[in-house]
Design goal:
Elements lengths: L1 H13 L1 H28 L12 H4 L7 H17 L4 H5 L3 H5 L5 H35 L5 H31 L3 H30 L8 H15 L3 H13 L14 H9 L6 H7 L1 H24 L6
Helix pairs in contact: 1-7, 2-4, 2-7, 4-8, 4-9, 4-11, 7-8, 7-14, 8-9, 8-11, 8-14, 9-10, 11-14
């Protein structure tokens, strides 16, 4: 497995598509962070710096989107590019049969490819986060504290798991489909649905299960929104967006988008609106993190079992 891991890792870093993808992601992230940093510096000039201002570099939208939104929508493409031809490329080049004819177990092949992809994603996202952090220090002029550094570290781990899920899904399609184009299109089709059309599907489910007969009825509106939020959790994009927005926003105290509060609750929330500690923010998003880890394990397990049971013959 170590030999396959090193070979796959060298192939990833030597491939032109990886370099182009990383350069594109880095360019967009640097431009977005520079615009947000310049805007924050102008807005905070002559004012006392608020707490957790450094995290606003990642959550504040520039001209188009924030860095968190960019990774949520386009991070899956990184995983898809790394994994859509992991197995069928070997099969089409007639190297897979030669590989398994050696004293190498099949599980070493799939494990080595998956681990090489995870390390590649980790190095890419970690270098991107460090570069943006350094750029933020230059533009905003605020040094992040230990609390903010911890939140960024948790955000990095969640992002690695998120991109690794899409890579595992692409590897599964590369096992199921012999054609490179088919495996890539299947992964991209799922990404488009979960990223852009899950909201429409969640609204249809909410209107079917919890219809709103009276638009002035607050209870019906809340029930409809809760059903829509629950249905949207089928999307890994929504899971990642909700988890990271809560981790990077210490003032966010709930996962729900619509909450009914009375006058006394609203007064208490306004009066005691202090940032949550990192541990409390993690507890808020534990359900999302558990679902995301479950999706990764299910996807990799399906890839593992399918590959072990497939027939491999030379052509």
């Amino acid at each position: 497995m170590a030999t396959i891991f090193r070979k796959e890792l060298s192939d990833h870093f030597a491939s032109t598509r990886f370099l182009i993808t990383f350069a594109l992601v880095l360019m967009v992230a640097v431009v977005t962070t520079s615009m947000v940093g310049a805007h924050l510096r102008e807005a905070l000039e002559g004012m006392a710096k608020p707490s957790h201002v450094f995290l606003m570099l990642f959550t504040t939208s520039g001209q188009f989107f924030s860095l968190v939104q960019f990774i949520a929508f386009f991070g899956p493409l990184i995983g898809i590019i790394l994994g859509f031809d992991a197995i069928n490329r070997e099969r089409n080049d007639n190297t897979l049969s030669k590989l398994v004819s050696q004293p190498i177990f099949r599980d070493a092949v799939i494990n080595g490819k998956f681990l090489a992809g995870i390390v590649t994603v980790t190095l890419m996202l970690a270098s991107l986060l460090l570069l943006i952090t350094g750029l933020g220090l230059l533009t905003v002029g605020v040094v992040p504290g230990w609390e903010e550094a911890g939140r960024l570290a948790v955000y990095l781990l969640v992002s690695i798991a998120y991109v690794s899920f899409w890579m595992g899904l692409a590897i599964l399609f590369s096992i199921l489909f012999r054609s490179l184009a088919t495996s890539a299109l299947a992964a991209v089709a799922l990404w488009i649905f979960f990223a852009f059309f899950i909201g429409f599907a969640a609204d249809l489910v909410a209107h079917a299960l919890a219809p709103v007969a009276n638009a002035r009825d607050a209870e019906q509106m809340v029930a409809n929104q809760r059903v829509a939020d629950a249905a949207s959790l089928a999307s890994p994009v929504v899971l990642y967006s909700q988890a990271t927005s809560t981790i990077l926003d210490p003032f966010r105290r709930t996962r729900q988008n619509l909450v009914m509060v009375g006058p006394m609750e609203k007064f208490s929330m306004d009066r005691f609106r202090n940032p949550l500690p990192l541990g409390q923010s993690i507890l808020v998003v534990v359900p999302y993190l558990s679902l995301m880890i479950g999706l990764i394990l299910a996807c990799f397990g399906a890839s593992y079992l399918t590959f072990l049971r497939q027939e491999i013959r030379s052509t």
